[in-house]
């Protein structure tokens, strides 16, 4: 089981003498749109394959294109998941499963099948690529560009893939997600534009499309580290300067104590800056609602130009947290 907290790390403190605040670079966990419980120990990526019942050249080619895309989707998903704090440290294996049913309706796997797959390696979370279809459309024709005749050509790749996540312990489908997109490559040239020359080859385009499917789904289900910047005010009193030293050490409670002392100075602008800084301290401690309250207080003391942008930032973090 992997547990993680929404920790914030400070990396660089920018020192600037000509402006009334300092900038810091922060990194925090950005929650995914689709949340998966962290209560798992052995995840698996499963590629579903369907039988190619036809044997003509066109069908064999399409089957090869889809198979390549599915492999790349699984590899891309694995690589992107392992960058996430939710999956960090896990050895995520990839398996292929040959289905005997039709891909027409994309039915969930039977739980007997899920159990059979899971029991082999004590898997408790299966991220299953249930279906992927890649289509490739291309054309090239003459056009007039800047009064000069040339050739325009394109390769369009509509792609469809469907993912499901199975919790093998609770016997629950945690998520089903259809991803659709169309990738386009195009260019102009003095000679006819063809696939494999000015445009990517069919297999290269298919591999890219599959990789895109995996990357996009990882972004949907896995939290990621997000880099951002914040500012805080450090001038105006010895308390503000002392608090700045604590910020460098990431000691936000100690910094907050110093900023609280500023209110005894009865300086409206300085009080607004201290309240702004207290909003930052609460954000760093994960107390977003209190952060907004301090920004409201800061605005009552004095309408600093930095307040509105920071309010929007905190509201975005709250919205991301409750998805």
Notable characteristics:
6-stranded mixed sheet; alpha+beta; Double Stranded RNA Binding Domain; Serine Threonine Protein Phosphatase 5, Tetratricopeptide repeat; about 325 residues
Mean pLDDT: 91
Please give the domain count.
2
The best one-word shape is flat
The termini sit apart by: 22 Å
The residue fraction in helices comes out at 25-40%
- Gyration radius from CA atoms, angstroms: 27 Å
Largest sheet: 6 strands, mixed
> Based on the structure given, which CATH architecture of the largest domain is correct?
2-Layer Sandwich
Describe this structure in words.
The protein is flat. It folds into two domains: 9-31 and 225-321, Serine Threonine Protein Phosphatase 5, Tetratricopeptide repeat (Alpha Horseshoe); 43-222, Double Stranded RNA Binding Domain, CATH 3.30.160. Helix 6 (268-284) runs antiparallel to helix 7 (288-301). It is built from eight helices and nine strands. Strands 3, 4, 5, 6, 7 and 8 form a six-stranded mixed sheet that branches. The protein has a three-stranded antiparallel sheet with strand order 1-2-9. By secondary structure, the protein is α+β, with helices and mostly antiparallel strands. Helix 1 links the parallel strand 3 and strand 4 (93-99).
């Amino acid at each position: 089981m992997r547990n993680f907290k929404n920790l914030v790390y400070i990396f660089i403190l920018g020192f600037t003498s000509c402006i009334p605040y300092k900038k810091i670079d922060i990194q925090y966990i950005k929650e995914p749109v689709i949340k998966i419980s962290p209560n798992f120990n052995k995840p698996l990526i499963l590629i579903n394959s369907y039988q190619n019942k036809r044997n003509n050249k066109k069908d064999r080619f399409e089957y090869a294109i889809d198979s390549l895309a599915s492999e790349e989707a699984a590899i891309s998903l694995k690589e992107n998941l392992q960058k996430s704090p939710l999956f960090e440290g896990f050895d995520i294996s990839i398996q292929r499963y040959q289905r005997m049913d039709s891909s027409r309706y994309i039915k969930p796997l039977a739980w007997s099948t899920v159990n059979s797959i899971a029991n082999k390696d004590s898997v408790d979370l299966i991220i299953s690529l249930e279906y992927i279809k890649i289509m490739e459309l291309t054309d090239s024709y003459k056009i007039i560009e800047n009064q000069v005749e040339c050739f325009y050509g394109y390769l369009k790749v509509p792609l469809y893939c469907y993912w499901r996540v199975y919790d093998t312990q609770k016997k629950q489908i945690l998520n089903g997600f259809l991803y659709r997109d169309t990738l386009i490559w195009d260019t102009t040239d003095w000679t006819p534009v063809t696939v494999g020359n000015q445009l990517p080859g069919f297999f290269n385009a298919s591999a890219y499309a599959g990789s895109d499917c995996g990357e996009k789904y990882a972004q949907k289900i896995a939290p990621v580290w997000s880099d951002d910047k914040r500012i805080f005010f450090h001038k105006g009193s010895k308390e503000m300067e002392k608090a700045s030293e604590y910020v460098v050490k990431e000691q936000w409670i100690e910094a907050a104590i110093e900023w609280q002392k500023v209110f005894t100075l009865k300086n409206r602008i300085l009080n607004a800056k201290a309240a702004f800084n207290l909003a930052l301290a609460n954000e760093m401690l994960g107390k977003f609602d209190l952060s907004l309250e301090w920004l409201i207080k800061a605005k009552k003391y004095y309408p600093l130009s930095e307040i509105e942008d920071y309010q929007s930032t905190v509201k975005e973090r709250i919205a991301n947290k409750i998805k």
